[in-house]
From TrEMBL:
<protein>
    <submittedName>
        <fullName>DUF397 domain-containing protein</fullName>
    </submittedName>
</protein>
<dbReference type="InterPro" id="IPR007278">
    <property type="entry name" value="DUF397"/>
</dbReference>
<feature type="domain" description="DUF397">
    <location>
        <begin position="17"/>
        <end position="75"/>
    </location>
</feature>
<dbReference type="Pfam" id="PF04149">
    <property type="entry name" value="DUF397"/>
</dbReference>
C-alpha cells in the first residue's frame, strides 16, 4: 500500500532499488528508501523478514520529492513536519514511528539512528 507523500533521485538508486544507510549492518533491520519518479518510498525491512507477511500488503509511505529535504531535516533536527505530504515523526524512548495518517512504520532507536547517520553524510540527499 502506497500513500502519496516526496522524492529525490540520487546516483546511488536511480535504478529503483531499495537502499539503506551504510551505518546499518547486513543483518540489522532498517529504514529502507527507494527513489521512484517524483516520490521517495519508505519502508521497514522487518516486515518482509516475517514469512507470514504478504509483500503486497507491506506498509510503504511515499513522500513527494519536492518536500523530501524537509522530511530529512525533520528526521535529523527533530523539527516539526509542517508541509503537506510529509509524514509525521513521533519519537519515543525506544524508537520512532512515522505515519501519514493511514500507514505506520515503527523503527527501533538503533534503526532510526542508522538512518539519521546516513542522512548526515548525504546518503539520502536529492541529486
Amino acid at each position: 500500500m502506497i500513500t502519496p507523500m516526496s522524492t529525490t533521485n540520487t546516483a546511488r538508486n536511480l535504478d529503483g532499488h531499495w537502499i539503506k544507510s551504510s551505518r546499518s549492518n547486513a543483518n540489522q533491520n532498517c529504514v529502507e528508501v527507494r527513489f521512484d519518479g517524483d516520490v521517495v518510498l519508505i519502508r521497514d525491512s522487518k516486515y518482509l523478514r516475517d514469512p507470514a507477511n504478504d509483500p503486497a500488503d507491506q506498509p510503504i509511505i511515499a513522500v513527494p520529492l519536492a518536500v523530501w529535504p524537509e522530511f530529512l531535516s525533520a528526521a535529523v533536527d527533530r523539527a516539526a513536519c509542517e508541509s503537506a505530504g510529509i509524514p509525521q515523526i513521533n519519537r519515543r524512548g525506544d524508537g520512532v514511528t512515522i505515519h501519514n495518517g493511514r500507514d505506520f512504520l515503527e523503527f527501533s532507536r538503533s534503526e532510526w539512528e542508522a538512518f539519521v547517520g546516513g542522512i548526515g553524510v548525504g546518503e539520502f540527499a536529492a541529486a
